[in-house]
Amino acid sequence: MPRTLVTGGAGFLGSHLCEYLLKKGHEVIAMDNLSTGNVENITHLQSEKFKFIKHDVTEYIYCAGPIDYILHFASPASPKDYLEMPIQTLKVGSLGTHKALGLAKEKNATLLLASTSETYGDPQEHPQKESYWGHVNPVGPRGVYDEAKRFAEASTMAYHRFHGVDTKIVRIFNTYGPRMRPNDGRAIPAFVPQALRNESITVFGDGSQTRSFCYVDDLIEGIIRLLLSDYHEPVNIGNPQEMTIKELAESIVKVTGSRSEVIYKDLPVDDPKVRQPDITRAKSVLGWEPRVSFQDGLEKTVDWFRTQKL
Ligand code: UDP
């Protein structure tokens, strides 16, 4: 039975990964310092095959026994979170990734790094291919996340090339689904609660900026395929269906049957104008593409938000 460590295991994506891996028969250790994660995301997973360790991965990681896989998902991941925790965001992407790679080397484990479409910054190539080096402002407010993840990718490739560690890098595009933290500052966890409360929907800027949203189950499937592949270069995983943020707000109003109106607020500094993954590589290397339509994914997500205290 494989033994797998998920850092950030109590977060949105981490908890879905733990659940999936347990179903596939792995023994799973979830590690999280709970700065943005929530134990409620994993309480339903309790069993003798699942262990939670509260730990900050920027500190030395101690794990007794063998480890086959490390999925390194610890990091604040919403613009609001990394603006409120800039130093922690820098530390977890740099020092935390270094610790996770050191553990992978020690245990002879495969490590998958959760990277991000933010490594492309405010992109001048559209859609974004993995070969694009990006357009990032290192000293802007998003720089702490973008540059930490770029450093994390460089560290991961160095451990692969220099130490021969088996590593994978996934560049995750906007993802949504159950267990997103309500009101964490991201568009979907802001808009759905606003719509369910019939409050104004706060679109930043004129809402013409675009994003491409992937349902969480599709993302997890792509990540596991990458983990089990022998491919070491970065792979985009995301849904290429692109929409404007205004269209997103309108879809949410429709699906929730809300009386909310859209209002417009200032656009945050360095907010990318466009974002859409080119998934040619994921299709050819992993045989992966998303399956869940935006309508179906949004309905499932709204159903989950209805069960939450908003
Ligand atoms: N956004 C918005 N209103 C909100 C939260 C976000 O209009 O209440 C916008 C945000 O400015 C960005 C888009 O929605 O253009 C997606 O934002 P999110 O934080 O979800 O992700 P990211 O910017 O990292 O793609």
Features:
UDP-galactose 4-epimerase, domain 1; alpha/beta; two-stranded parallel sheet; 9 helices; 13 strands; 310 residues; Rossmann fold; 2 domains; 37% helix; binds uridine-5'-diphosphate; seven-stranded parallel sheet
What would you note in describing this structure?
The structure is a single chain. This protein has 310 residues and is of the alpha/beta class. It has 2 domains: 3-176 and 214-239 and 277-290, 3-Layer(aba) Sandwich (Rossmann fold), CATH 3.40.50.720; 187-209 and 242-275 and 295-306, Alpha-Beta Complex (UDP-galactose 4-epimerase, domain 1). 37% of the residues lie in helices and 18% in strands. The strands form 4 sheets. A 7-stranded parallel sheet has the order 3-2-1-4-5-6-11, with helices on both faces. A two-stranded parallel sheet has the order 7-10. Helix 4 (143-163) links the parallel strand 5 and strand 6 (167-172). The termini are far apart. The model has no long low-confidence stretch (mean pLDDT 98). The structure holds uridine-5'-diphosphate. Uridine-5'-diphosphate (UDP) is lined by residues 78-79, 174, 185-187, 190, 202-204, 209, 211, 245, 268, 271.
Annotated CATH architecture of the largest domain: 3-Layer(aba) Sandwich
Which molecules are bound in this entry?
uridine-5'-diphosphate
Relative helix content: 25-40%
* Helix and strand composition category: alpha/beta
**Named CATH topology of the largest domain:** Rossmann fold
Mean pLDDT: 98
Strand order of the largest sheet: 3-2-1-4-5-6-11
**CATH homologous superfamily of the largest domain - what is it?**
NAD(P)-binding Rossmann-like Domain
Number of helices: 9
The total strand number stands at 13
First-to-last CA distance: 39 Å
| Rg estimate, integer Å | 19 Å
What's the number of structural domains?
A: 2
Q: What is the highest CATH level, the class of the largest domain? A: Alpha Beta
Low-confidence runs: none
Major sheet: 7 strands, parallel
SSE pattern, N- to C-terminal? EHEEEHHEHEEHEEEHEEHEHH
The coarse silhouette is globular
